[in-house]
Amino acid sequence: xxxxxxxxxxxxxxxxxxxxxxxxxxxxNFSFWSAAFKAVxxxxxxxxxxxxxxxxxxxxxxxxxxxxxxxxxxxKPLLSVLLLGAATTAYFMDSYGVVIDRExxxxxxxxxxxxxxxxxxxxxxxxxxxxxxxxxILVLKSKIQYASFTRELGYKLLTLVVTLVIxxxxxxxxxxxxxxxARNNTxxxxxxxxxxxxxxxxxxxxxxxxxxxxxxxxxxxxAKKGDKLTAPAQKKVLTVLVVGEAARASEFSLNGYQRxxxxxxxxxxxxxxxxxxxxxxxxxxxxxxxxxxxxxxxxSDSKAKRSENLVDVLKHAGFDMLWRDNNSSSRGVxxxxxxxxxxxxxxxxxxxxxxxxxxxxxxQLQDYLDKLNNDGVIVLHMKGSHGPAxxxxxxxxxxxxxxxxxxxxxQDCPRQELINAYDNTIVYSDYVLSQVIKLLQKNDQRFDTAxxxxxxxxxxxxxxxxxxxxxxxxxxxEEQTHxxxxxxxxxxxxxRMKLDKGCMQRKANDAFSQDNLFHxxxxxxxxxxxxxDGSLDMFASCMAK
Length: 545
Known about the structure:
β12 and β13 (467-468) form a beta hairpin. The chain has two domains: 2-209, no CATH class; 224-542, Alkaline Phosphatase, subunit A (3-Layer(aba) Sandwich), CATH 3.40.720.10. α4 (45-69) runs antiparallel to α9 (149-173) and α6 packs across α11 (195-209). The chain is built from 21 helices and 16 strands. By secondary structure, it is α/β, with parallel strands linked by helices. The strands form five sheets. An eight-stranded mixed β-sheet has the order 7-6-10-4-11-14-5-15, with helices on both faces.
């Protein structure tokens, strides 16, 4: 530390900026260069020269940007913040293969402290130290030698002109290569540090400031129960919607996976949907989207925040609503009905170290059902297969596949151990869902019951070097968008709602998505409202009028 205190480097602002641009492009962009080398190849002198030209182009381009941003009165603080942000971004990109965009920023900001804590590691500390803290100290200790205002302005203009000439020359010489590279690798623009995360933050802030004060538009205020629910009957109707977490369809043995990951559900009379896609690739998008009236192509965070959703419409129709959450909140979906954070229960055997296994969602739920004298809808939001610490998602007795990866540094685990840890989360989720069904069966004397399970998104477990989720949807691998979906209905529910189960079984391989959930639940529960669109109801063709 004495050495660091003695460091005092005299340097001009132009040289400092050029040095910073070189540092960012060289040391915080390993993921970008890995992707670039793979896309361009290294099998010819032309490819190598193009990569060298790209290197020069990016340094000069970033130099221009920093020259405009790093003004004298904010030079050191802003550059220090950029260094720390770049180090953090580089760590997550290099470790998990994630792409940084607006939705990734939204997902990050909505992550609770427990989830954030799972991402911390010694490797992250090394990245922050070497790529963030030490360069930041050098910046703070350096002596910036400013000339007079006119000279400094002249230097800045000269720097901009020179870098523009260099970058323009490189761009002109390799125009065809650059155009082809950018056109065929559109995702790569999200990989250039620090431009990617700064742009993503700016986009997120701008999207949240749109439209001024938040005004929520009512939806389905005309909703009412149809004849199937209002006709004289001894029982009330009880439906449980289970929102899964990061459960990709390919790891369900119900879908043909070679491992037995659904031992409990396979024993029950369920309907397994094999071809369901998510609205987004992260919880912050998928959960609000699946409960909204908007289809994926028309969905935006701003629209979702400014409109009521499925739980509101069901409330308008007269259902008793309950949202139980073992994840990081309902993402605003249940804000008007309230939500129960089951992690606060801290039940011994189900909770430890600040988090709970998903069985907690059923804790004392029977007490609630005993007092329920109305038609009810319960939403259970699971922790499911949330990474990267998959090993924390399943109790010891459900660790069917061993040895398993027991670290959040997924790239450091043998491939099979990582798969074992993830598959164990599916095994445990299978058990929890079976317990939901058994709870409904237990209450069959008082309720006509149904359970609908749908994961929020899938998960990458190292395919092509990609881990976790939250990739931009247009380039997201199928592992992140193809999700698990299972339904169960009691015989009395099927009879009451005039559902042809054979018909539903025959349609179980058809293509569906989270776009269908809003309208399918309304149709399933015989809710009459102008918000309902029968063309998106996955049950409509199998339901007698």
